[in-house]
Structures are given as C-alpha cells and as structure tokens.
C-alpha cells in the first residue's frame, strides 16, 4: 500500500536514508528518540518535505513529485491545528467542503465520524471548550473525513496527560481496526508503540536500526540499542552456560523477567538495590557478569546472596548497529 524506496534527505548536520513499506490495513509505528528522523519521514511521505533521492508509491501510484493535496493522505499534526473560529462539525467537514461534497453528504459523514471517534452530540460545540483528548479525536475525524487512502499521525498524544493516553490509544486502535485504513504513527514512547503497532520501525540518527512486530522487537532485538530502547535489558558478554555447544562470544541480551531465581543456578550474585512496583519487585544484582536487573514477585533483601539461572533460550545474540 505504501512504499518508500531508497529515500535520502540531507541536511547540514543530519542525513535520513531508509526503505520501508506498509501493507493494507496495517498500523505501523516510527519509533525513536527526538532527532532520529521520525517526523521527517512522515513529512516526506505526506509531501510537506521533498527527498533528495528515492520514490514514494501509494497504492501502486507514484506520488513522489505530487503536492500534499494530491496524495490522498490524512494527516494529524502534533498540535492538531483545529480552526478556532469553527465548531466541531465545521472543523470535521472542512475537507469535504474543499472537495465540493453536497451538504447532506457532509452532514451524514460528519455525524458518522463523530460516532466513530466517540464524540456523538459534540457537533455544535466550540473547539476551545474541548479537552485535549477530545480535540485530538476531532483532529482524527477531520483527517478521515475526505476518505484518505492512509492516515498519518505525528505524535498525536504528546500534549495529553498520561492518565488519558491509555483511553486515547484504545480509541485510535478501535477506529483504525474498524476502518481498516493503513496508518503510520510517529512516537518516542515505547509503550504506545508496543500497544498500537502491527509493526515497529525503530529509527536512530536517520537510519533504520531494527524493525518487526512488537513481540519480535521486544523478545529478539537485533542490536543493543534496540534492546535497551524497547525495555530494560541485561547485556552480557557472550552466551552464558551453554553446555555442549561452541561459546558464542557476541554480546547477548536477557530481559530482567527472564532471569530465574534458582538455588542451584550457575550464577551467584548479591542484591544491591530494590524497588517495589505493586505487582513485582525489581532488584539490582551484582554478579561476575556485572550488574544485572532482576524482576520477580518474590521479596528479597538488600545484601542477600542469591543464585540465578539464565535460560539459554532467552539469551539473545546482538549484532552491531547498522552503519557502525
């Protein structure tokens, strides 16, 4: 459905170079720290910026040199950019008016979208009376109104307080699944990426560091950077305790929840720090492999000597980052 091929965009102090594709009905996330190239990629796809090299194919159509209004994409900006002098219905209907749709069709489409985003009955409200989360949903409805071929969202939850983000994530996922519209979502939040995505593209300094489903990136990241970005990660210098096989000296990752307390485990350590998080404890454990992080439901004491097992199937070999 969407294919960015051999895209290159150069700035005096930054270079973006990547290939990526999005299939029909798929929600993909561009994930990364600020300055990694996420929004630049989205803006190139939308036509707001032009790549120095490469092509953009949307549903079999080459749109590389088309202006944004001819690409058939819906775009939700970080600050929503709602029109303050228009009410909710008028904001949503804006693209339909530009298209010259008949007024009865506009009214029907607006009511349909208000119900879809959970704002039925809000049509006549001034936008300044809405909460941030409600404004975000209006912005999504406005982007969807003209019937775009794909939906692009640039950190749409960044201005929303953390307590409301979970609800908004559920709303967005329900809308995307109901419409089955290919969606590209930009965020720096691993929580949002893991919850929403069919696939994640992890960007770092303008290149694609890793990609895959949320489960693949969390359980089997390709690089140390990807391992640490997706969650707490213990990095050990080579495969530990692999009897009957050649020693793999590549660095390996094991998640804190995959370490096992075992009185006969091959690795000893001493608890140096502890933290309680309601449903689990997190401990720092000093071992011969360095300091490891352990999460468990068991209550340990600071200074306690423990033994650990590092299950071989959870020791994931890591490769150098691309371009290094």
From TrEMBL:
Residues 2-230 form the ABC transporter domain. It holds the Pfam family TOBE_2. GO terms for cellular component: ATP-binding cassette (ABC) transporter complex. Keywords: ATP-binding, Nucleotide-binding, Transport. It comes from the Bacteria. The keyword Transmembrane does not apply. GO terms for molecular function: ATP binding; ATP hydrolysis activity; transmembrane transporter activity. GO terms for biological process: quaternary ammonium group transport. PANTHER family: SPERMIDINE/PUTRESCINE IMPORT ATP-BINDING PROTEIN POTA, SPERMIDINE_PUTRESCINE IMPORT ATP-BINDING PROTEIN POTA. This is Putative spermidine/putrescine transport system ATP-binding protein/thiamine transport system ATP-binding protein. It comes from Alkalispirochaeta americana.
């Amino acid at each position: 459905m969407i294919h960015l091929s051999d895209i290159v965009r150069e700035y005096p102090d930054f270079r973006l170079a990547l290939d990526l594709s999005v299939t029909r009905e798929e929600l993909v996330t561009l994930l990364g720290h600020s300055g990694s190239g996420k929004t630049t990629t989205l803006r190139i796809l939308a036509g707001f910026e032009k790549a120095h090299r490469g092509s953009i194919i949307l549903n079999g159509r080459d749109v590389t040199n088309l202006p944004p209004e001819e690409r058939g994409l819906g775009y939700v900006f970080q600050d929503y950019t709602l029109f303050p002098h228009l009410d909710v219905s008028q904001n949503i209907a804006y693209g339909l008016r530009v298209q010259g749709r008949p007024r009865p069709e506009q009214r029907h489409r607006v009511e349909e979208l208000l119900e879809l985003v959970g704002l039925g009955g809000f049509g006549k409200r001034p936008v300044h009376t809405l909460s941030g989360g409600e404004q975000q949903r209006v912005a999504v409805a406005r982007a969807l109104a003209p019937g775009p071929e794909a939906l692009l969202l640039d950190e749409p939850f960044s201005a929303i307080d953390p307590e409301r983000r979970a609800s908004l994530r559920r709303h967005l996922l329900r809308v995307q699944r109901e419409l089955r519209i290919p969606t590209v979502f930009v965020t720096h939040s691993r929580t949002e990426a893991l919850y929403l995505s069919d696939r994640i593209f992890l960007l770092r300094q303008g290149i694609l560091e890793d990609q895959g489903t949320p489960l693949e990136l969390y359980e089997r990241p390709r690089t140390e950077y990807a391992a640490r970005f997706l969650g707490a990660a213990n990095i050990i210098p080579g495969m530990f305790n692999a009897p009957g096989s050649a020693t793999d000296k590549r660095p390996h990752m094991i998640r804190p929840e995959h370490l096992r307390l075992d009185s006969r485990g091959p690795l000893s350590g001493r608890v140096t720090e502890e933290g309680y998080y309601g449903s689990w404890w997190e401990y720092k454990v000093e071992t011969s492999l360095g300091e490891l992080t352990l999460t468990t439901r068991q209550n340990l004491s600071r200074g306690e000597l423990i033994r650990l097992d590092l299950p071989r199937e959870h020791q994931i070999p890591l490769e150098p980052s691309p371009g290094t």
